[in-house]
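Chain A, query sequence.
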Amino acid sequence: MARILGTMSDRLLSAILRERGACVPEHGQLCPTCKSGYRYRYNCNGYCTSKTAIPC
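Chain A, predicted structure.
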C-alpha cells in the first residue's frame, strides 16, 4: 500500500513539475539497463522510454 501511495505521489509531483517546465536531473541520460537490444534514455519524468540507436 505504501508503494502504491509513493508511486501516485511521484506521478502527481512530476505532473505538476512538468507543467512548470522542470525535469528530473537524469533527463536525457542513458538508462543502466538494456531492453530488446537497445539502450533507452530517461524522459523528463525519470522513466526510461526513448529508444536510441545505441545497441547493447
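Helices lie at 2-19. The chain has one domain: 1-55.
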